[in-house]
């Protein structure tokens, strides 16, 4: 019986001819045919149109790829890559397009994968990296980086760089950028980053931008420039500042702020430390806000910087949606430029709070309390309540009413002392209880002297009341008791105590 030979690749069958555990051989399968079948086959072949033949002996690209992938090395990599979750199709594509992998020893690639796993990368993460950058399995620079991360860094700093950060490092197209990684990390320590804070810094930045894409010299210049404006403190507040370009971003942006401050380095440093996100804004963005406040609100550049110093977050507020309509509101309430400046210094949150979820509710509440629209009193009250929640405002008003203070008296109190609308309800209750129960006064005295509610209960109210009661008894004005300075109060107390002793003698 005759036989026709067909080549089949059967990766799951073992091969007695190949000693490697991971080799997958090609088998020749002998399929028997009868004479009748052979005649039928010849007939079908004769009916087929003839094709030109080529006697070229060179292999096609597909044959060459087949030969390379199905070499012993290629077959031994299949099970290794499968363990990472790669499909056979993905493995074939990787091997077919990467000569370096095909000619690297299997044990070397296995060792590299083990290093990646020791660095904290999962099989899934490694497979994605291999698909995107197969060279991570062969590039020599990767070994030094991984060894530093796994052994030196872990032993010295007692922590691990997060997986996502390592992935970013390995995703760098040019692995030359990861060179001197350990030297740059040492440079951060020399600059003054505390050893116990270094891991926080590294895990909070894009290491590719902050470290790898900068040369040692560039990183040194950046750190030296930041030293003038808070240095370590600024970096710890916003580690991402290390990602910025010194010449293109940091120098122009910080330079504009320094110019606005009139060259005051300490004040500029204060703004940056309080609001390190400032460096994320372009010069054009900051300049547009400054010019708007100068032209529309009538503020001087000096006043604008003071306002930025108090509340740098105003640079985040939209000019169209927040700054313009709110300053327009203050103008309609009768505030001029000096009034607007004083208002914003005391209540800068007015510029950034949500109108629908915050300011609108408070505005309605104040109007119901008796405030007239478009008046300075309404503006001052709005400034006070920006520093408390709507819930707090309701509790405060409810507390006053429970103590017998009428709505009209609350309105009168708040017009003379707007802060009475923003105090903590528990603190207010304690002060009112002390006034009535311990001092023996009427609640009406608070209406006449609402500033009483702003003094510290223990350090000011109780202390002075007990001191003065020893000398003059309980019938004293709470205004005179609390409003005089500490020095004046101490002097009066000593004199009155001396007079009292002489009288007794």
Structure description:
This protein has 505 residues and is mainly α. It is built from 29 helices and two strands. The protein has a two-stranded antiparallel ribbon. The relative contact order is 0.03.
Short description:
This protein has 505 residues and is mainly alpha-helical.
Give descriptors for this structure.
505 residues, mainly alpha, 29 helices, 2 strands, disordered N terminus
Mean pLDDT: 83
Uncertain spans: 1-70
Strand order of the largest sheet: 1-2
The span between the termini is: 145 Å
Query: Helices and strands: which structural class?
Result: mainly alpha
Largest sheet: 2 strands, antiparallel
Q: How many DSSP E strands? A: 2
**Percent range for β-strand residues:** under 5%
How many alpha or pi helices? 29
Tertiary shape: elongated
Rg, please?
40 Å
> Helicity level, as a percent range?
55-70%
The multimeric state of the shown protein is: single chain
């Amino acid at each position: 019986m005759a036989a026709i030979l067909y080549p089949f690749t059967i990766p799951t069958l073992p091969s007695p001819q190949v000693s490697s555990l991971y080799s997958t051989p090609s088998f020749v399968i002998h399929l028997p045919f009868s004479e009748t079948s052979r005649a039928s086959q010849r007939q079908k072949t004769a009916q087929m149109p003839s094709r030109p033949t080529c006697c070229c002996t060179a292999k096609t690209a597909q044959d060459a790829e087949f030969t390379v992938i199905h070499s012993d090395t290629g077959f031994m990599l299949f099970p290794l890559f499968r363990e990472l979750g790669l499909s056979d199709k993905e493995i074939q594509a990787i091997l077919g397009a990467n000569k370096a992998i095909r000619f690297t020893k299997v044990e070397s690639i296995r060792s590299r994968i083990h290093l990646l796993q020791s660095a904290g990368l999962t099989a899934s993460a490694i497979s994605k990296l291999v698909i995107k950058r197969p060279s991570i399995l062969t590039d020599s620079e990767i070994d030094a980086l991984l060894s530093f991360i796994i052994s030196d860094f872990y032993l010295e700093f007692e922590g691990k760089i997060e997986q996502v950060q390592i992935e970013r490092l390995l995703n760098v197209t040019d692995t030359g950028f990861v060179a001197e990684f350990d030297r740059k990390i040492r440079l951060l320590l020399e600059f003054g980053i505390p050893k116990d804070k270094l891991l926080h810094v590294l895990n909070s930045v894009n290491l590719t931008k902050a470290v790898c894409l900068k040369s040692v010299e560039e990183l040194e210049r950046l750190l030296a420039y930041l030293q003038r404006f808070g240095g370590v403190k600024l970096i710890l507040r916003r580690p991402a500042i290390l990602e910025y370009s010194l010449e293109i971003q940091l120098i122009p942006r910080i330079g504009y702020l320094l110019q606005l401050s009139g060259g005051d380095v300490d004040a500029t440093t204060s703004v940056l430390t309080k609001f390190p996100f400032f460096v994320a804004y372009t010069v054009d963005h900051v300049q547009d806000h400054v010019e708007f406040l100068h032209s529309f609100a009538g503020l001087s550049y000096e006043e604008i910087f003071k306002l930025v110093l108090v509340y740098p977050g105003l640079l985040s507020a939209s000019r169209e949606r927040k700054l313009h309509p709110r300053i327009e509101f203050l103008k309609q309430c009768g505030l001029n430029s000096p009034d607007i400046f004083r208002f914003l210094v005391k209540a800068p949150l007015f510029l950034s709070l949500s109108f629908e979820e915050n300011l609108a509710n408070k505005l309605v509440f104040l109007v119901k309390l008796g405030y007239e629209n478009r008046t300075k009193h309404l503006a001052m009250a709005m400034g006070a309540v920006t520093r408390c929640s709507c819930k707090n405002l309701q509790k405060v008003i409810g507390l006053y009413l429970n103590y017998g203070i009428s709505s009209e008296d609350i309105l009168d109190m708040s017009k003379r002392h707007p802060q009475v609308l923003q105090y903590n309800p528990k603190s207010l209750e304690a002060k009112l209880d002390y006034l009535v129960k311990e001092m023996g006064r009427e609640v009406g005295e608070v209406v006449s002297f609402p500033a009483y509610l702003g003094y510290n209960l223990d350090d000011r109210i109780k202390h002075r009341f007990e001191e003065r009661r020893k000398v003059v008894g309980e019938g004293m004005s709470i205004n005179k008791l609390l409003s005089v300075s500490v020095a004046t109060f101490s002097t009066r107390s000593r004199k009155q105590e001396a007079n009292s002793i002489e009288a007794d003698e």
